[in-house]
Design goal:
Blueprint: H1 4-23, E1 26-27, E2 36-38, E3 44-46, E4 53-54, H2 62-65, H3 75-78, H4 85-101, H5 111-120, H6 126-129, H7 135-144, H8 161-171
Antiparallel strand pairs: 1-4, 2-3
Helix pairs in contact: 1-4, 4-7, 7-8
């Protein structure tokens, strides 16, 4: 595991890379550690856009939509539903969870059981694994991993007091 400050540094860089892709209508669809490159200077690059889709083209089939790595797949992607940038955000939340805790949020005996957990189960709270983790980090991870894409966020939206409190509590940590 990384310390929470390093983890936040990496997660924010990944989020900025995804925001850049999303602003151009591109959804990555396979955010996972193997598709993140950390350069010698500490900067982070999102790689392997091989299964990415332009969001302006709604030509995906069900089999296309379930492509991705099962440990990082969003609930809507696991269901074969239409996905958007919020699916990448969920996958980033899973990676953030793993970076902080050293564990994946969902493990099971096969891929289908893991997808079922992404769809139906809540992850163990990161602070139950790492008790000294700032609450704001946990809140950001859990907001990114919300089951419903409409509730998913890592940055404050207008009137989003929970996200603003999470970021404030992180700023106050040493």
């Amino acid at each position: 595991t990384l310390n929470w400050k390093e983890t936040l540094h990496f997660a924010m860089q990944i989020a900025k890379g995804l925001e850049h892709a999303h602003s151009r209508g591109i959804v990555h669809r396979d955010i996972k550690p193997h598709n993140i490159m950390v350069l010698k200077n500490g900067s982070v690059k999102v790689t392997d856009f091989g299964i990415a889709r332009l969001t302006k083209f709604d030509t995906e089939t069900i089999s296309d939509m379930t492509i991705g790595s099962v440990h990082y797949i969003s609930p809507e992607q696991a269901r074969g539903k239409k996905i958007d940038a919020r699916s990448d955000l969920y996958s980033l939340g899973v990676m953030f969870y793993e970076m902080v805790t050293g564990k994946l949020p969902f493990m099971a005996e096969n891929s289908y059981a893991i997808m079922h957990k992404h769809i139906n189960d809540a992850p163990a709270s990161p602070t139950s694994i790492i008790p000294n983790l700032p609450l704001g980090i946990e809140q950001i991870i859990l907001m990114a991993m919300e089951k419903s894409p409409e509730n998913r966020s890592v940055t404050p939206r207008p009137n989003d007091l929970a996200a603003e409190r999470s970021l404030s509590s992180i700023r106050n940590c040493s």
